[in-house]
Amino acid sequence: MERIETDLLVIGSGCGGLSTAVTARKAGLEVIVAEKEPVFGGTTAFSGGVLWIPGNRHGRAHNPGDTREAARQYLRNETGEGFDAAAVDAFLDAAPAAVEWFERETEVRFVPTLYPDYHPTVPGGVDIGRSILAAPYDIRGLGADMARLRPPLQTITFIGMMFNSSNADLKHFFNATKSLTSFVYVARRLATHVQELVRYGKGIQVTSGNALAARLARSALAAGVPIWTEAPALKLVQQAGSPSGPVVGAVIRRNGQEVEVRTRRGVVLACGGFPHDARRIAQAYPHLRSGGEHLSPVPTGNTGDGIALAESVGGQFDLRFPSASAWMPVSRVENSDGSVGVFPHLLDRYKPGVIGVLRNGRRFCNESESYHDVGAAMVEACRGQPETAAWLVCDATALAKYGLGYVKPAPVPHGRFLRNGYLKQGATLAELAAACGIDAAGLERTVREFNVHAAKGEDPAFGRGRTAFNRYLADPTNQPNPCVAPLAQGPYYAVKLLMGDLGTFDGLRTSPVGEVLTAAGTAIPGLYAVGNDRASLMGGNYPAAGITLGPNLVFGWLLGRHVAGVGQAGNQAGSAPQEQRHAA
Ligand SMILES: Cc1cc2nc3c(=O)[nH]c(=O)nc-3n(C[C@H](O)[C@H](O)[C@H](O)COP(=O)(O)OP(=O)(O)OC[C@H]3O[C@@H](n4cnc5c(N)ncnc54)[C@H](O)[C@@H]3O)c2cc1C
């Protein structure tokens, strides 16, 4: 078997892996990234590219009153028994410096967002300032490696064009038929995109998570980190004659051959958790245990390899959080070529004239809370039933204004979705209920009761519109409550929701910096985990937009510095030009 030596081997090329790799490289280490898929970027490249990083310099400009103590208090309140003081402190201490370092030393750039925390009324929560967004990127900056960037998630693009999670972009698309400014904006965006399709066969100006993955990859490649693709890690190598000894490398399959990569500083597991590990999720997800279905938009290569590799050398994985994953209500999109897409319901649930009901026709939660909260409510409401499902129901006015799921607002036609069964229609609520297979009397009663209060902009049952976050993705022109309007005018429409996820929360037990720990709590020398391979800082909760990517980036930075010895006594980082060590 061929043998290669390097300082650090990073397995996986999402935000966790690439941020670790670029940091370690800039601190002087020789680094290789091995990625299993033909494309790099992982789930990160599919994502909204929003990062929750309290104390970041962009947020400080918007909300100078926010403090580290408030962010800590918020995390304590949100994570409850899962609060990990040491890891939280490490994250909050490093967060501002990490953002400044990436913006100064790499191609990564951020822009502020207007996102409130998801529960801004919980003590320590804020209405603005902690969530930032990766700045758009022209992927020609990747040169020939542009072809190896994972393309965006098809279901959340429009003819392959990405929207920007900043929200301003989307507002123009929703208003294109009502405002000249928005019409011109949309026409320009579409014209540029069509030109790019003709010239390059894909969009070149990417946004959101695709921009984050591209920027991190460009930074790593430019610093001299090779990103091997189609290069799965198969097993870890331990020091000879020492079955429980230090990890000194891994076997990678590359170009059809097994290569032993020997490491002087260690191996970093950054394989993006276990969303497609059928065995582990069957154990972890209550809706699968009761015979239901789960549809994940996460790339299918995230099969829990990092966790299995760690376990093979004594690393400890626990299923201990209240939610094993970040829940995302999704719908199944049947494409004309027979393939199936997964649509994450990121925007429609917040809108007035849209409600969510169970098979009995009853509402079950505040639909304008986050995807995770709605997902958790769905899991709870369907617990023990054979199917975990709900239906988003709206009237003709809401469908035309906002679309529903994968169905776009007017004037984009929706006939194809009625024909393929994605969108259900009924002239009356009873007809709609029959088309969906839900209880007609229950649905009629629900809408009747909802409408009485909705006419006044109220939702006494679940309090929609009560927080800045509820209203953030709603319709500000709908007053007095941007989230609430009666379902007045038939025909009525519905899309079926199933349970999906954005990534897993449970993971490997690690020290704050990311050393993989055994069941006894001791660190396995030479083995580290980052990103969703390590147990989430959020303890199985979802406090804000960007709570996976934010910690993934910051812990990647901390880990890269740790393995390189930056900021520690006896720093021995070696083989590349040293960065200026003033970032901490
Ligand atoms: C539609 C969508 C929107 C989202 N939006 C946001 C958002 O705005 N903000 C946020 O914080 N989170 C968001 N998330 C979640 C977020 O994208 C993930 O939590 C995050 O990207 C995980 O990063 P990671 O580095 O741990 O893993 P990934 O980015 O998934 O990278 C892991 C990589 O490891 C590779 N790999 C796996 N096994 C092996 C192996 N054996 N050998 C080599 N490589 C291997 C995989 O192929 C993959 O490329 C979103 C998720 C989705 C699906």
Structure described in brief:
With 584 residues, the protein is an alpha+beta fold. The chain has 17 helices and 21 strands. Helix 1 (15-26) packs parallel to helix 17, helix 3 packs across helix 4 and helix 4 (85-105) packs across helix 17 (549-564).
Describe this structure in words.
The protein is an alpha+beta fold and 584 residues long. The chain is 31% helix and 19% strand. The chain is built from 17 helices and 21 strands. Strands 1, 2, 10, 11, 12, 13, 20 and 21 form an 8-stranded mixed β-sheet that branches. Strands 14, 15, 16, 17, 18 and 19 form a 6-stranded antiparallel β-sheet that branches. The protein binds flavin-adenine dinucleotide. Flavin-adenine dinucleotide (FAD) binds at residues 11-17, 34-37, 42-44, 46-50, 153, 165, 209, 232-233, 270-272, 297-299, 301-302, 305, 344, 502-503, 531-532, 546-549, 552.
Beta-strand segment tally: 21
Strand content: 15-25%
* Terminal CA distance: 41 Å
Number of helices: 17
Q: Structural class from helices and strands?
A: alpha+beta
Average pLDDT for all residues: 93
Bound molecules: flavin-adenine dinucleotide
Shape: globular
Low-confidence stretches: 570-584
Instruction: Give the fraction of residues assigned to helices.
Output: 25-40%
| Radius of gyration from CA coordinates | 24 Å
Largest sheet: 8 strands, mixed
